[in-house]
Amino acid sequence: MGLTSQSTGIGALKEMFEIELESFDDIVIALAGNPNTGKSTLFNSLTGLKQHTGNWPGKTVTNAQGKYIHNDRQYILVDLPGTYSLLAHSVEEEVARDFICFGKPHATVVVTDGTSLERNLNLVLQIMEITDKVIVCVNLMDEARRKNIDIDLKYLEKLLGVPVVGSAARNGQGLEELKDVIEKLVSGEIETKPKKVEYDSVIEKAVGKLKPYVYQLLGNKINNRWVSLRLIDGDTKLLESIKDYMDFDLSKYQLLGDKLKSIYTDFQRKNMKLEDIKDSIVSSIVRTGEDISRKVVTFNSKNHNDLDRKIDSILTSKRFGIPIMISLLGIIFWITIEGANLPSEILAKGLFWIEGKLTDLFISIKAPVWLHDALVLGVYRTLAWVVSVMLPPMAIFFPLFTLLEDLGYLPRVAFNLDYYFKKACAHGKQALTMCMGFGCNAAGVVSCRIIDSPRERLIATITNNFVPCNGRFPILISLAGIFFAGSSGVFRSLAASLTVLAAIVLGVVITLIISKLLSKTILKGLPSSFTLELPPYRKPQFGRIIVRSIFDRTLFVLGRAVMVAAPAGLIIWTMANIRINNITLLSHSAQFLDPFARLLGLDGYILMAFILGLPANEIVIPIIIMSYMSKGAMLELDSLTEMKGLLIDNGWTWLTAVCTMLFTLNHWPCGTTLLTIRKETQSWKWAWISFVVPTITGIIVCFILAQSVRLLALV
Amino acid sequence: MEKNLYKLNQIPIGSFAKVKGLNSKGPIRRRMLDLGLIHDTIVKPVEKSPAGDPIAYEIRGAVIALRSEEASQIFVELIE
Fold this sequence. Notes:
- The complex is a heterodimer of chains A (715) and B (80).
- Chain A is of the alpha/beta class and 715 residues long.
- Chain A has 3 domains: 9-187, Rossmann fold (3-Layer(aba) Sandwich); 201-299, Helix Hairpins (Orthogonal Bundle); 321-529 and 539-711, no CATH class.
- Chain A has 29 helices and 12 strands.
- A 7-stranded mixed β-sheet of chain A has the order 2-3-4-1-5-6-8, with helices on both faces. Chain A has a two-stranded antiparallel ribbon with strand order 7-9.
- In chain A, strand 11 and strand 12 form a beta hairpin.
- The longest helix of chain A is centred in the middle third of the chain and has 44 residues, at 321-364.
- Chain A starts with 8 loop residues before the first helix and ends with a helix.
- Helix content of chain B is 16%, strand content 41%.
- Chain B contains 2 helices and 6 strands.
- In chain B, strands 1-6-2-3-4-5 form a 6-stranded antiparallel β-sheet.
- The two termini of chain B are 17 Å apart.
- Strand 10 (531-533) of chain A pairs antiparallel with strand 5 of chain B, so a sheet runs across the interface.
């Protein structure tokens, strides 16, 4: 519904934050919390499928909103980015703080991890300084119980002065109570008296001096004590936000500035530097959290984290850490390749059976032959190919991958590899964005948001394409299967898996080299600070994994592929059917490209296929096959043996296969990824660089390999 | 106070140490404090990564990996 900015004070802010209200009675609840606290699980359980995700206005931070109805009222739940603090000034922290402070939600629920409450209280206390309308949800109570950790929720409630609800969101426990408490807090039935952190007396005195001036200027629209503290803390970002959201430029007010100056002079007289003040503020918050936690949490077993440490000592060990990581990846590929075979075949049969029926339909309505050929042999057949080749591997790969994610293994990958990324002047979390890239490079590029430093984020963005996505796996897998596997059956897929694995390890090595090169040239700089939490391992929830990976990833990627494959099918069919001098347009173009392609160990048709594959790499192999058969449409190839024969007849050697695989790994990103890079970096320049860097890499690698093999007369 | 101070990344795995001082500056300092690495906080190195750096530390009930660049700016006292 279109609420105008004039409607109400709240309405205006809702508009600035793009919150989708349906009526003025809607209640807006912010969901804050540390990462890894099960915040998203809670969000999903409360809102179900009534969700909508986008970006915060002007920020590359995901904004998820969802709805639920409780006692006939609609609640809009806004999932804030997971943060540990609101003081350290990453974009995420700024977004979270601004929404709590200026978005004026009716209540803010802070989700905390029951197994490490102390650390989580830092954020709770900071939020309670901004607003009174806070509910603390102690989540993962089941994990805490399993680890023999007792939490006295009633006492915690008393100490904090705000309502506390215990929950285990994965099992749906505590959700109803949470909804009730939210209702009561919003209606005013529950009143809160949030515990205020007490600061050093020097700071408290300064706050006392500054507060009246802040009140004069901003009135009751914002917590004066908190603003005073931030001013003393030297927080200029908050001043900017006050200007943006409240249309009020505090820095213009001489009196306030003078007061602040006199406070700093006081500090100086007492020999306190700004740094000491900042330290003291943070320390007071941390100590208050420590104190509360000591009073309410009892660890009944001293070794509650022993199992996690034992697993870590194997998974991150010097000897086994990296081998285990590579084997896990290898096993996932093997299961994917082995498992996808049969469903792919069945799917292909089914889809081509439908094609037959479509042809019958076109004949029965006496449609012109060219229309049938363009739509059925061009568009439909390309679609059928893409779906049958892509769907089964994705439906296997994504759930397996989500399983590793759910177990808590991925941060360990970043931990294991960080050293190498540091050497490349990049960020350890780049390893996580690469993991996402295995699924889809566009998704990988979006996930680069987790890297705070803009320089390192750009490096991760530009190099994401060096990990092969699901659209490129089929090329690697089928070529590996044809040229590098001896016998049949299990061994075939084993050898193929190893070849694919080798390609991926090579991709990682290239990523590191290119990252280093970028750091030394266009993205000069030193590695930024790196802190990475290794959360406890968690029991995965299989149901949720399947739903999440099928809906969020598989269908998303497939939908995208289908959207590009359909028009691409039409274009390719046209190129393969328009003849000039009795040679198709496709052949003309391929012949033009041929001399250059030969230098790279490819041929004109292969290079042509990669160019036409810009919308989606999935169609590269079908185009190659189609060109060789010089038929006007893509074919159904029933077996890899037939395909092998075709390729060899057209002059392929093992070198052609290797170069094609290398070029698959190193060439321009697909159209969607390029558009995503443009969107994420807000510049065509970086999208263009992301196009050029892997392309040049591919040309150089293939050229060197092809020429040296030929020089040594190995082919 | 100067007695037996070590850099955090020099403490053996499994031992306990107490934070006695921070040398880092600006936003990194703020981030370290936010992690709870304030004066007298007890820290325990729990795991080295395969290359020996970063190292994971148990800090106030959470396990956080720090690179040697950051950890060497944190001065600690060994606890027996």
